[in-house]
């Protein structure tokens, strides 16, 4: 859990605020830079954290990783320079927060974080139950981070051809289907690895594409404000989702040596996120000549 949070710090800053650093570039062209850094940090720190826990123990491993977060965050803040002129009158926070399009994106972020972490937390356990070694099971986290690194770049560019909202709908539907397949159907390490990489690639859209949608919807000046509001929705999803996952697994699945209900929880969360993005598209094309299958 700590590693996942630390890894995100490598790319979140650049992903969310790089539009203000390079306003002359399109959001789709530059979003992959920050998201790639996040994925690379995930790969490096996942491996580093495992080696630290073996060599110096859990407590010192957490201290070292916390120091890394402090240094990276401090460096990011020190290097940040605004290149986009400030908007006269400021950004209308309340109007943005109440906009039905942002509410749809926020609700999607809430549901994503309800179910997103199921494979990250429980796929290694499922692999152990299926007879895999502890080292092989733990490596699935590295595989997901590797897939996430590639996916964040590819999905950002895919938005040029199919549109960011279309990308989110398709990716989330695919991720919701992958969770029960990976948790319940996989039995061999090759299938676990393939599903982990695929899930990492597709789920990366929740980080790499959201800033693009917000920049296109509310403009560059309001992007950071909109991102902050969406992150609040996501935080509520984490607070609800992670304890609920643990409670479901401990009370229902673990006594039965099963992953059925926890898989259903992950499927439901991400599928509802896909439905939220589908509503966003309907709301966006309403009153225009565009159709549901239009590139958007």
TrEMBL record:
Gene3D superfamilies: MFS general substrate transporter like domains. Keywords: Membrane, Transmembrane, Transmembrane helix. The keyword Transmembrane helix applies. The chain crosses the membrane at residues 60-80, 100-119, 140-159, 165-185, 192-214, 220-240, 261-280. It comes from Coemansia biformis. This is MFS general substrate transporter.
């Amino acid at each position: 859990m700590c590693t996942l949070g630390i890894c995100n710090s490598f790319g979140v800053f650049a992903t969310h605020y790089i539009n203000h650093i390079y306003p002359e570039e399109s959001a789709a062209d530059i979003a992959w830079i920050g998201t790639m850094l996040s994925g690379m940090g995930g790969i490096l720190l996942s491996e580093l954290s495992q080696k630290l826990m073996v060599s110096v123990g859990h407590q010192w491993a957490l201290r070292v990783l916390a120091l890394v977060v402090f240094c990276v965050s401090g460096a990011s803040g020190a290097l940040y320079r605004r290149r986009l002129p400030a908007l006269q009158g400021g950004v209308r926070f309340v109007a943005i927060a109440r906009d039905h399009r942002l509410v749809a994106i926020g609700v999607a972020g809430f549901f994503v974080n309800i179910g997103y972490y199921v494979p990250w937390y429980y796929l290694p356990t499922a692999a152990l139950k299926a007879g895999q070694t502890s080292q092989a099971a733990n490596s699935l986290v590295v595989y997901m981070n590797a897939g996430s690194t590639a996916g964040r770049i590819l999905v950002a560019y895919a938005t040029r051809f199919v549109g960011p909202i279309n990308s989110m709908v398709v990716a989330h539907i695919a991720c919701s289907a992958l969770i029960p397949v990976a948790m319940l159907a996989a039995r061999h390490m090759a299938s676990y690895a393939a599903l982990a990489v695929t899930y990492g690639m597709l789920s990366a859209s929740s980080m790499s594409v959201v800033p693009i949608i917000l920049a296109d919807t509310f403009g560059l000046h309001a992007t950071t404000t909109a991102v902050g509001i969406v992150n609040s929705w996501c935080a509520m999803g984490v607070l609800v989702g992670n304890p609920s996952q643990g409670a479901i697994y401990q009370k229902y699945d673990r006594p039965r040596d099963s992953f059925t209900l926890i898989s259903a929880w992950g499927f439901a969360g991400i599928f509802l996120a896909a439905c939220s993005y589908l509503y966003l598209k309907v709301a966006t094309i309403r009153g225009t000549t565009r159709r549901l299958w239009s590139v958007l």
